[in-house]
């Protein structure tokens, strides 16, 4: 069953998207427009708050997580989805503290 995003989920995903692509950032390109990628563990995705920002190419393109597959993607860029999710949560939590 598909879970509907709440207002809180939508606000979270907007903050994630506003960060810019984490892979582009690792490559030295900051602020690349991004979309959210739901982190998958086990059988299915983990929810709207477990999302990471990836540009369209690194999300759905040939060099992206869906194009290459998770294992190849993580090997290629030297970072796991879990590590990226940790970065996202740290940054959002830091921004909440600062405001």
Q: What's the order of the H and E elements? A: HHEEHHHH
Tally of DSSP helical segments: 6
Largest sheet: 2 strands, antiparallel
Spans of at least 5 consecutive residues with low confidence? none
Total strand count, please? 2
> If strands are numbered along the chain, what order do they take across the biggest sheet?
1-2
Based on secondary structure, the structural category is mainly alpha
Q: Estimate the helix proportion, in percent.
A: 40-55%
Topology:
Blueprint: H1 7-18, H2 22-26, E1 35-38, E2 51-54, H3 56-60, H4 65-68, H5 70-77, H6 81-98
Antiparallel strand pairs: 1-2
Structural features, described:
With 99 residues, the protein is mainly alpha-helical. The chain is built from six helices and two strands; from the N terminus they run H-H-E-E-H-H-H-H. It has helices at residues 7-18, 22-26, 56-60, 65-68, 70-77, 81-98, and strands spanning 35-38, 51-54. A two-stranded antiparallel ribbon has the order 1-2. The chain is globular.
Summarize the structure.
The protein is globular, with a radius of gyration of 13 Å. It has helices at residues 7-18, 22-26, 56-60, 65-68, 70-77, 81-98; strands at 35-38, 51-54. A two-stranded antiparallel ribbon has the order 1-2.
